[in-house]
Amino acid sequence: MPTNFDEIIDRRGTSCLKYDFAAERGYPQDILPFWVADMDFRAPQPILDELSRRVAHGIFGYTDPKDTYKDVLLNWFRTHHNWTPSAESLVVTPGVVFALCTAIRAFTQPGDGVLIQQPVYYPFTESIVDNGRQLVNSPLVEKGGHYSIDFADFEHKIRTGNVKLFLLCSPHNPVGRVWTKAELLKIADICTRHEVLIVADEIHHEFVRAGYHHTVLASLSLQIANRVITCTAPSKTFNLAGLQLSNIFIENDSLRRKFKHELAATGYSQPNCLGLFAAQAAYEHGEEWLCKLRAYLEDNYQKTKKFLQQELPLVRLIEPEGTYLLWLDFSAYGLSAKELDDRIIHKANLWLDSGHIFGPAGEGYQRINIACPWATLKDGLEHLAAAFRD
Ligand SMILES: Cc1ncc(COP(=O)(O)O)c(C=O)c1O
Predict the structure, then answer these.
(1) Which among 156, 175, 273, 386 has most CB atoms closer than 10 A?
(2) How far is the CA of 135 from the centre of ligand 1 (A)?
(3) Which conformational region is residue 150 in: left (phi greater than 0), alpha (psi within -120 to 50 degrees), or beta?
(4) Does residue 235's CB lie within 6 angstroms of at least one atom of ligand 1?
């Protein structure tokens, strides 16, 4: 059955994080949520069919990826990203954040510096701090609505911050940058010269707008691949986050051994069987759905942009190159972070991700997830406009 992206599917009462935990998290019970990065769309039909088959089989014992799983995955990356990782490089984890934390423990010592570029996906910060490492921040620089890397600062922070590992967000959440090949080569050059390993979180790599191109960092050269841990997952692409399966590629044997050793120390061994089956079906049969999804998201983006221009001209929309998350600048209203949150939560009755949680540079911003039926999004935008109109 083809997916109707306009269909509103009631997610309430399914224990979903997005809709069912407002009261527990201190928000009004009936708030409209546009925060966490999953989608209000049903997964592709071939995945649902595969899961139905597996449920009908009725046995959910221990499961591990076979060669066929790896073949399907490698074929996807070869055809979609011109990237040919080896089958041996694959390590499966229950999530990308799980992999970030594992890498931090595997490749750094307590007290070592781990570099990030704020504003950035907030679990980057948590994974460093919670594991007792030093957070080193080289903030992105925003000019005229475009974020870029201050490479002099990036290198300076590496030199002075005892940095051993860099967490790259590519494409970047929340600012929506799709890093160019030239930027990635510069990053790799600096990190190589200072012997800094790179964890490339490329979870958003299928959401790149027309005119932009995602380059897998590890595809740039064998030398670069040798120092990179590439994090991918079907969770964002095919809306499977609750099935908890990520595919991590580590080409360097010694790094992979260390990573696997740390993974084993957490007690993790085999993946969730339904996650594994769903992932294989996704990468084997999900392309058509994904193309339609991308078109729908672009449409949502264009309508949102138009709405903001007409109804909320003081809100500055940072034009995204990728992801389905929009980064909105409310600083023209002159509100403090708390006043802005209060207005959005209590006047607009909207649950967005507040900018300051992405780092101090996010103050005055809010992140909104547009991966939902347009009717739902329009309703949210109308709430927003009403709260800022009077
Ligand atoms: C950049 C980034 N990395 C990782 C994740 C989460 O990945 P996982 O659920 O596999 O831990 C997200 C989800 O929003 C994300 O935006």
Answers:
(1) 175
(2) 19
(3) beta
(4) yes
What CATH number did the domain enclosing 336 receive? 3.90.1150.10
In a domain, residue 10? The reply is no
- The size of the chain, in residues, is 390
What is the percentage of the chain residues whose pLDDT exceeds 70?
A: 99
User: Burial letters for 77-111: b for 16+ Cβ neighbours within 10 Å, e otherwise?
Assistant: beeebebebeeebbbbbbbbbbbbbbbbbbbbeee
Residues 149 and 117 in one domain: yes
- Ligand 1: distance of its center to the CA of 389 in Å? 34
The predicted structure's pLDDT at residue 131: 98
Per the structure, the complete domain to which residue 357 belongs is given by: 17-44+287-388
Count how many domains the chain has.
2
Q: Which amino acid is at 329?
A: D
Q: Which atom of ligand 1 is nearest to the CA of 325?
A: 16
Separation of alpha carbons 27 and 390, rounded Å: 22
Tell me, yes or no, whether 267 and 295 share the same domain. Answer: no
Domain end among 215, 250, 285:
285
Summarize pLDDT for 116-129 with one digit per residue, the tens: 999 999 999 999 99
* 358 touches 118 (CB < 8 A): yes
Q: Give tens-digit pLDDT for 171-210.
A: 999 999 999 999 999 999 999 999 999 999 999 999 999 9
246 lines ligand 1 (CB under 6 A): yes
CA 351 to ligand 1 center in whole angstroms = 19
Is the Cβ atom of 232 under 6 angstroms away from ligand 1? no
Using CA atoms of 224, 114, 361, 386 in order, give the dihedral in degrees to the nearest 10: 80
